Records
---
Amino acid sequence: MLSNTCKYAIRSVLYIALHSKNNEKIGIKPISEGLNIPSPFLGKILQVLSKKKILNSSKGPHGGFSLRKDVDDICMIEIVEAIDGLDFFNSCIIGLNSCTENPNEAPCPLHNKYGAIRDQVFELFKTETIGGMVEKIKESKGKIHL
C-alpha cells in the first residue's frame, strides 16, 4: 500500500517530532542512525519533504531538519501525497482501466468492497496527525520503536 520510501518519510517526521526540543534542527546523521536508514537515501526523502513544505532544512555545520508546522497541523496524508502521491486512492486495486464510476462500464469485481476500505484509509490518513501519533508513541512507554 505505502512504498518503503513513504514509510521512511513518516518515520522520519515522527523521529524529528519526538527528538526535537523547541523545534531545534536535527542533523541527518542522528536521524539516519536512529531509524537505520542509509543517509544518502534519507537525505533525498527529507529534501522532498522540505520542498513540499513539511520540513525546514538548512545546510552547514549547524544545519539539519525541523518541522515546518506544529505537529498537530501535519496530517499523514500530506506525507503520503508528498512521497507516493494520491493515485492509490483513485485507482483500481487490480489495475483495470474500466474500474470507474462510469455507469456504462463494469467496475472490477472488488470495486464496491475495496472502495469503502480505500475511503476509510484515506479518511484515516487525512485525520491522523503527527501530533496524535507522537502522543500514542509516548503513551506506549517505550513499547513502540521507530
---
Amino acid sequence: MVNIGHRLRNLDSLLNLRTGPGAAILPKDVTRIHMRFALRLEGGHMGPRKFFRENLPRLKFHNPTIPMIVQRNDDNAGPATLSIYFREATGSATAAETPWGITSSRVMDGSIEPPAPGPGERVLTINMRGAHSEKILKDFLTKTGAVAVPISPRDEALKRKLEELEVYAEIDRARVLKEHQDYKREKRMLEQAQSEAAALKAEME
C-alpha cells in the first residue's frame, strides 16, 4: 500500500503545478517559447531563474503541445531574454507537438541568439534581466494575451484540506521530536545514575 504521506506529497505537487501564478492558457497563435539566462544569479538572472522554476512548468502543464525551449549559459554579463513566437495572421506556422517536459540545455556562450522566426512567424522578446519573476510573468501574460486558469472549487477544497493536514503533520512532528528528546534525556540520566552508582560501589569496596 502506498504510504499516505507520499500520496499527500504527490497531490500537493500536482496541485501546485496546475494552480498558481503561470497557470494560463495561451492563445492559438503562440507557436513556441524560448528562454535564455545564466545559471548563476548574479547580474540580474535571479528573476529569470525563478520564472523558469515556478511559472514555466505551470504554463507547460496547461499548454503541453507548445514547445518551450530553455537555454542556460555561464555568461552572467550576458542577456536574459524570453522570446515568444507567434503565427502571423496570414502565415501557416504551426506549433510542433513536443513531449510534456520543458526542453532545457546548457551552453557556454551566452551570446548565442534565439532562433529566428520561421516562415509565417513573428517573434516578440521580453528583456528579463534584472526583473522580478512577477514582473516577467505579468509582461508575458499581457503580451501573449494568455487567459489565467482560475482554481476550481474542487482544487480549492483540496488545497484547504492539504493545508489542514500539514498543520496536523507539523504538530505530530513536534510530538515525535519531543518524545525523542525526552527519551535521550532519560537515557542520559539513567547512564549518569548508573555511572555514579558504580563509582560509589567502587569506593566502598
---
Amino acid sequence: MLTGQIPDSLGQCYDLVSLQMDQNSLIGNIPATFGNLSSLSMLNLSHNNLSGNIPTVLNTLKFLNSLDLSHNHLQGEIPIYGVFDNATAISLEDNWGLCGGAVFFHMASCKTISKQSERRNRLIKVLIPIFGFMSVILLVYLLLLEKKMRRRTDDTSTSLGENFMKVSYADLAQATANFSESNLVGRGGYGSVYRGKLKESKVDVAVKVFDLEMHGAEKSFLKECEALRSIQHRNLLPILTACSTVDSTGNVFKALVYEFMPNGNLDTWLHPREDGKAHKHLSLAQRLDIAVNMADALDYLHHDCGRPTIHCDLKPSNILLDGDMTALLGDFGIASFYQDSWSTSTSSMSSSSVGVKEYAGGGRRASTTGDVYGFGIILLEMMTGKRPTDPMFKDGVSIVDFVDSNFPHEIVHVIDVNLSEDSGVDITQANKASENYVRECLVSMLQLALSCTHPVPSERMNMKEVASKIHAIKTSYVGRKTEERPSLE
C-alpha cells in the first residue's frame, strides 16, 4: 500500500509507458512533471485520495490512450483535447469537485468569481440573519412534508405515462427480497440492478435502482425515461415501468423496471468471469445474429424512430441476451436526441484524429457517427474476444490498429480462439482459400468493423448502410453453410 505524495521526480522517467498506482492511499496533487512522460500510454491513479486540479499538460501526451483518475478528490476544470476528448479512454467518476470538460462528461459548467460577485457575497452575509428566521419556518414545513410523504410510501408513481403499469416501492422491495445482495445481478455507473419477481404478474424483472447521491444519477433517470417513453423496437430492451416515489425511510427513490434477460449481457459471454469460473462461448452464427440485432436497433434509433436518438454508450455490458439469445440494446442513461440544427460535418477533423471526439461529429455535441464507431469497436471485440482496454494495446496501438495490421491475410492471428462452429470446428485452423465460407464471413465482418471505425467520422457509413451490409453477410454465410463445411489445413 503506497502512501504520501507522488514525487515530482517520477516525471523524469521519460521512457515510462505504463504507470498503475491505483488502490493506494496517495495524497496531494498529480505532479505537473507528468507532462514530461512523452511515451506514456496508460496512467491509472484511481481509488486514492488525490486532490487539486488535473494538470492540463496531460492533454499533450499524444500516446496516452488510457487515463483513469476515478474515485479521488480532484477539483477544478477538466482539461480538453488529447485523451480528455476520448470518451472510451478516460474515467473520472467520483470526483465531485470537477466541472466543465467535454460534453460526454455531463459536468456542470465552471463558475468564475468576479469582483461584483465578491461584493454580492458580502451583501449576502449581511442578509443571512434576516433569512435565518425564514429558514426555520421552511425547515418546519419540510419536516411536516417528509412526515406526510412517509405515510404515502406505498403510493405508486411512473414517469413514463399512463400506458405503463404502476408499481410502488413496496412492490419492488417485495419482488427483490428487500433489494437483497443475493438478488444483486450487477452495478452500473448510476446504481444497481436486482433480479426479482412481481407478486401480481409473476413476471421475472430486472430492477435498476438509481443511487441519487451520485452526481448525474437523477439526470440519467430522466434521460432514460424520456428515451424509453417513445421508442419501441424488437431489439431494444423492453421496459415495463418506472417508479419515482419515496422509500421506507422517506428518501427519494427512483427505479426502472425491465423484463429480466436470463442469458445476461454480451460482456459475460465474450470475456472470462472475474470469479475464475468457466464462461460459455458464442459460435460464429450466434455472433452474427447478435451483430444483426444491434445493427437493426441502431438503424431504428438513428433513422426510423421519429425523433433520431444517439445511444452514446455502446459497449457489450449494455447488450442483453434473452432466453433465445436475441440481443437487446439497453441503458439509455446518457442518450441524446439528435437535433436537425446540429451539424454532423467532420471536415475540421484530420485523419490522424483517431479516437478523438468520436461522439462529437466535428463539434462538441453528440453525433450518430459516434454510435457507428462504437458499433465497429463491438464488432472487433466480438471477433477477437479482446477488450479495447486489453493490456496488449499499448504504445499507441489500439484494437483497430491490431486488426488492421493483420487484415486480410493474417486474420488467424486476431480471431478469438474460442470462436467455433456449432460442429466444433476450430476457426483458427480453417483453410485460407477464398472459397471457404467461414473465412469469407470473418473477412467481411472485420472489413465492416474497420470501415465503421475509420478515423475520419465523415468517411464512416451510416447505420442503415451498416445494417444492410451485415444482413447481406449473414445471408451469404447461412446460404453457404448449407453447401460447404470448412476444411482443415
